[in-house]
Amino acid sequence: MSTPARRAAGQAATPQAAESPGGMRRIASASFIGTAIEFYDYYIYGTAAALVLNEAFFPDLSPTAGTLATLSTFAVGFAARPLGAAIFGHYGDRVGRKTVLVVSLLMMGLSTGLIGLLPGYDTLGVAAPVLLVLLRVVQGLGLGGEWGGAALLAVEHAPKGKRGLYAAAPQMGSPAGYFAATVTFLLMSAVLDDDAFDSWGWRTPFLLSFVLVAVGLVIRLKVAETPAFAKVMDERETAKAPLVEAFRRHPREMFLGAGMITVVYVMFYTAATYCMTYTTGTLDIPKNDMLALTLVAVVVLGLSTFFVARWSDRVGRRRLIIGGAAFGVVWGAVLFPLLDTGNYVLIAVALSGALLCMGIIYGPAGAYLPELFGTKMRYSGAGFSYNLGGVLGGAAAPLIVTALAETYSPAVGGWFMSGMALLSLLCVLALPETRERDLDHV
């Protein structure tokens, strides 16, 4: 990019322009839409995995083996995310946040939509699960580049004292996507009988991803590059190998940040996947009832994410994250005993507590992880840490909880969740506070 072009990019993304009402709305919408689609995509897959994918793609396996197989395809998407974070982070730190975010949006949304068009085992045989895994890999690669860019889009446009508030925009995409996915499944399940839902109804939420991508694309193409990155480009200071630079300068932050965010994934995906399987299968609770109870927990997630993110501008990120992780240590132990009561109120409390833990940590994390890294390697550092935590918490946790519950008891799976929360607590205790940092630190 020529020097005049770099200067134009910097001028297009001045803080004054960002702080105008129209600029603020565009930034918030552009950072929000990607994480909303991310959690919509992953939750519809997790819900479908819990309810129907084992029969559609692994019909020859036992119910337990089929559930483990579908959760394994769920894990494959997470395994691809650190690679996606490395690739997209490299170009995001070299070329710019905006361009990379458009590509990541297309990859994750289109692959999700194609899952809705994929014939099952009865039609394609073994090719069906193979293609399912390939689409999950593409989805995971795209998702690996999504959160880091969305968080940076918000944080790097934010005034210093409002980064937590601005970063609430991408974080609020999580409960919004979760809510949209739950409502979609609930409606399809309510209007269709079991045979229709199992044969084609489950595909509708996936196909709606095509619409969400089109909306997100229109929004993101209208957003300017962030002021922090425009300054780096103007001064020709981009890193040649941003991820390598991040590991060289901030190795502790890379790994401790991943450990800190792990409990978010553990709580969310255990509540969204295994708890759905456990309550509808083992406890014989109707899936429509469980989907409705899940909506209560989603509201708790949304409120806690927004208000704690905003609060972090006043009291600091680290203190709140410590409190959320400590709460997770306790809640993992009580989650399954509450579910086992079969009482709908206590089930709602159980799921709400898990997502409250997530919200307390996830809200401030939108600003906290990016603030740990300098501008030249921020996309790579924050994105890789976030997605490495996803492998530990989102890929492994549902599989481990399922295996422990089947081999021993659900309570043992809950103790595992407490252990992962303790790991996150120890990691954040070893990290610094970042609220007062300047974003141009290295």
Mind explaining what this structure looks like?
Helix 15 packs antiparallel against helix 18 and helix 16 runs antiparallel to helix 17. The relative contact order is 0.15. By secondary structure, the protein is mainly alpha-helical. The two termini are 23 Å apart. The chain has 20 helices and no strands.
Pattern of helices and strands: HHHHHHHHHHHHHHHHHHHH
Rg, alpha carbons: 21 Å
Structural class: mainly alpha
Quick one: biggest sheet?
A: none
Please state roughly what percent of the residues sit in beta strands, choosing from under 5%, 5-15%, 15-25%, 25-35%, 35-45% or over 45%: under 5%
Oligomeric state as shown: single chain
Which characteristics define this entry?
442 residues; mainly alpha; 20 helices; globular
Can you lay out the helices and strands and say which pair or pack?
Layout: H1 3-12, H2 15-19, H3 21-51, H4 53-57, H5 63-94, H6 97-117, H7 121-124, H8 127-144, H9 146-155, H10 163-191, H11 194-201, H12 203-220, H13 227-234, H14 242-249, H15 251-282, H16 287-315, H17 317-340, H18 344-371, H19 378-407, H20 410-429
